[in-house]
Design brief:
The chain has 129 residues and is an alpha+beta fold. Helices cover 27% and strands 24% of the residues. The protein binds zinc ion (2 copies). One zinc ion binds at residues 5, 7-8, 10, 25, 27-28, 30.
């Protein structure tokens, strides 16, 4: 496969095994990263795919937090930090489900108590007569 050195812009021929790893440029001798699309990145860079236009955007690694705007389509998106768990969207979802379940349990207990009172009342009425 062909890739371009991000430092000297030299065109290089490399084995496919460098994808997602590191390579050393034979022209300038510098090490660089190769992203999953097979493009060269500087060691402090990171590439992301725009969710709007699927374009490849290169960001500085120390500058990936927060919202980014795609230079191609202008869409704003949040970059997920590499190697970290997805944003905690899934965790708060568990709370309402258990709350609903608790409400159902409470409703059942309440219904049981009401039935018990009715039965007691009926028994009292029966015994008093
Ligand atoms: Zn180079
Ligand atoms: Zn875009």
């Amino acid at each position: 496969m062909n890739l371009q050195c991000p430092y000297c812009s030299g065109n290089l021929e490399a084995d496919d095994s460098v994808i997602g790893g590191r390579a050393r440029c034979p022209l300038c001798g510098r090490k660089f990263l190769v992203d999953r699309t097979g493009a060269g990145l500087k060691m402090d860079e990171l590439s992301v795919i725009c969710p709007g236009c699927s374009g490849r955007i290169v960001l500085e690694r120390r500058n990936i937090r927060g919202k980014k705007a795609c230079p191609c389509c202008g869409r704003h998106f949040i970059v997920a930090a590499p190697g970290k768990a997805p944003p905690p969207d899934s965790t708060p979802a568990a709370a309402p489900i258990s709350a609903v379940r608790n409400n159902i349990v409470n409703a059942c207990i309440l219904a049981g108590v009401i039935c018990f009172i009715i039965v007691c009342a009926a028994l009292c009425v029966y015994l008093l007569h």
